[in-house]
Amino acid sequence: MIYCAQTSALRQLAVFRQEQWRLLVSPGATPAPGFGFALDNGAWTAHRTQRPFDVDAYVSHVERFGASADWVVLPDIVGGGMASLALSLSWCSRIRHPQLLALQDGMTPACVFPLPSSIVGIFLGGSTGWKLSTMRQWGGSAREHGLYYHVGRVNTFRRLQSAVDAGAHSVDGSGSSRFALHAQKVAKWNHYLASQLSL
Description:
With 199 residues, the chain is α/β, with parallel strands linked by helices. The protein contains nine helices and eight strands. Helix 7 packs parallel to helix 9.
C-alpha cells in the first residue's frame, strides 16, 4: 500500500483515488475527504526545519483524527537511537489507537522486542544509509513477531523494490504529493512490482 503526504493538489489526489492509495497526515493537516489515512507525528518535519517537536499539535492531531486512522506513529527522535525508543514507549499508554513504533539509527531487534501490545507495527525511519542497510532485517523481525511493517521516505523505484523485497506492507513518500508526474511514475512502478509478485 502506498501512503502519500496530505495535499490539496487535484491532479495528485485524482491519481491517489484511482490507485486507491491512502494518506499519511501530519499534525496541522486535515485528511482529504474520501481517503483512508494514517497519522504521522511531525518529528521528521521538526528535524528538517530544526524546530522542537510540537507536543500540543501532535496530541490535538491524535484526538481529532486518531479514531478513524489506520494507525498512529508514536513520537520519536530522528536518528535518536535508544533515546528515541524510550520516548516512543513513554507515549504508549497515552495513545488509545493502534500504534507504530518509529525505528531510528542505533536500534536493534534485540533492544526493541518484545513490544507493548498497543504497538501493532514498526515504521522504518532513520538516516538513508541505516534504513537501506537494515530494511531486510527489520522485515524479518516484523514477520517473526506478527507485526505490520511500514517503510518511510520511499520515492524511487529502487527503494520501493527494496521495501517490497523486505516484506513491507506499506511505504510512504512525499514526491507523489508534490508532483503529479511522480505520482504517475510510482503507480507504474507499483503495478510492475505487483505483477512480478504474482508470477
